[in-house]
Sequence to fold (258 residues):
Amino acid sequence: MVKNMENISENSVKGVILAGGEGKRLRPLSYYIQKCMVPIGHMQKPLLEYIVRLLKYHGVKRLDMLVGYKNEQISNYFDSGNRFDVEISYVLDDSKLVGTGGSLLNWYRKGKEDFEGDLLVYYGDIISDINLSEMLKQHCENRAMATLALSKGYQVSVGVAEVNGVEVSGWVEKPTLGIDVGIGILALKTSALPELELLSKSNPELDIMSHLVPHLIKKGERVQAYLTDAFWYDVGSAEKYEKLDNGVIEKRLGRLVT
Fold:
């Protein structure tokens, strides 16, 4: 874990955690537990607690949780955020908007546009030890409209064959591909959010990464990459949750919850 940010004002960045999804990929567990609240690590703390503590460690102490499905589980556990030394507000997605972009647009419509700093948007089913201080520093210094956290390389979950005709000439089990993949974390200027209103007119299911980011790129806005080799894991499916190594969680993030 790296040292937290020193030269970015706490008031200039607000954390926005997407924590309202139904967690359909995590069923049947998510019938009973909000997907962000699934217990992980040897201490069996909620996934969302690791996210909150990571943000706080890097100086992001003003948090808005965008909640919906089973939101009471989240608010009852975290309350005002005092015991985590953060300030938490809850924004209930009670609109007809669908998708991550819809949740962020709902946040914007409910008066949160009064905040003029930058947003650190964090998907609530991702666990990581990413250096958020370094990412935010890059985002602010380069005055980017959006900065995407991208992992260097991606390990596929299946074996890959080399085929000549019908002959298999080679085999690589679960190779790491030389591509840069999004990990569900991005910094975003609030001035980008009015674009969601425009996009919502033609996209009934509005997604941040599928719709807003390509739209900003097409407009010629400065969209940058923060390349990282940090640990990250998508806990959002039953298969991935079952395969999560609690030992890795303790090694990478255990100090945050002790």
Observations:
- The mean pLDDT is 87.
- The longest strand covers residues 176-189.
